[in-house]
Amino acid sequence: MRATDFFRGGRSRPFIMGVLNVTPDSFSDGGLWNSPDRALAHACDMVDAGADMIDIGAESTRPGADKISAEEELRRLMPILSEVIPSLDVPVSVDTYKASVAEAAVEAGVSIINDVWGLSDPEMAPTAARLDVPLVIMSSFGSSKTFKTDFIQGNILRYAGDFILEKIDLAHGAGVKDHNIITDPGIGFGTTHEQSMEILRNSSYFSFGGKYPVLVGPSRKRFLSAGFPGMDRDDATAEACAVAGSSGADILRVHDVACTVRRLS
């Protein structure tokens, strides 16, 4: 599998990445799916609803979240992977910024590394290169402690684009190939409501001339109440996904797969 397999191309809609949080404290569904049987049932439900891949995360990135050790992350993650991966016929990605967790997950059968902290672990790029799997590189600003108080200043497209290009250069230096890179402009990770909407409307910018598939993750984030007032968070997510899809996103990361698929159908 290569990242370039996820270019939307002639598909009628972008690829859908279903979110499976196996944490006690995620912002929208913490604790709901953190046992192997419930995680598997939910993953299967998302695939039945139209998910093209499942993204599993064991450490919350909600505003204010505390970081956990790699050992704790693996303790939460590995039993879920052991149950879910053999039972699905779609790719599974791991949402982690730790190289040691990514390596263990890939060894367990994960196909994609989704790094929401933009290669902050200096071992992530060489690990991804050695494992030869698709790598999502996301733009971010600050930390989970500052998302609500510190925001990117100036042109958001320029900031996120420059951030990602710098990390792509780092990845190249470690041996990651272009065909294994997916970009993510990082909606909600230090962006204002207005900046998040601007990213949605300019998703194709982050393909950098069509070189890389673009993943956009607006699901259930705070900006939706301002961008789509009066809508519940899953309907608003679906509307945000429609905007991102029409502006060039290849992959949409969502919690409620069925709602988004209905909107895009």
How is this fold's topology laid out?
Elements: E1 15-21, H1 36-49, E2 53-57, H2 70-84, E3 92-95, H3 99-107, E4 112-115, H4 124-131, E5 135-138, H5 156-174, E6 181-184, H6 193-201, E7 215-216, H7 223-227, H8 233-246, E8 251-254, H9 257-264
Parallel strand pairs: 1-2, 1-8, 2-3, 3-4, 4-5, 5-6, 7-8
Please characterize this protein's 3D structure.
It comes from Methanomethylophilus alvi (strain Mx1201). Residues 14-265 form the Pterin-binding domain. The structure is a single chain. This protein has helices spanning 36-49, 70-84, 99-107, 124-131, 156-174, 193-201, 223-227, 233-246, 257-264; strands at residues 15-21, 53-57, 92-95, 112-115, 135-138, 181-184, 215-216, 251-254. It has 265 residues and is an alpha/beta fold. It has a single domain, classed as Dihydropteroate synthase-like (TIM Barrel), CATH 3.20.20. Strands 6-5-4-3-2-1-8-7 form an 8-stranded parallel β-sheet. α1 links the parallel β1 and β2 (53-57). α2 (70-84) packs parallel to α3 (99-107), α3 (99-107) runs parallel beside α4 (124-131) and α6 (193-201) packs across α8.
Task: Identify the notable features of this structure and list them briefly.
265 residues, alpha/beta, TIM Barrel, eight-stranded parallel β-sheet, 9 helices, 38% helix
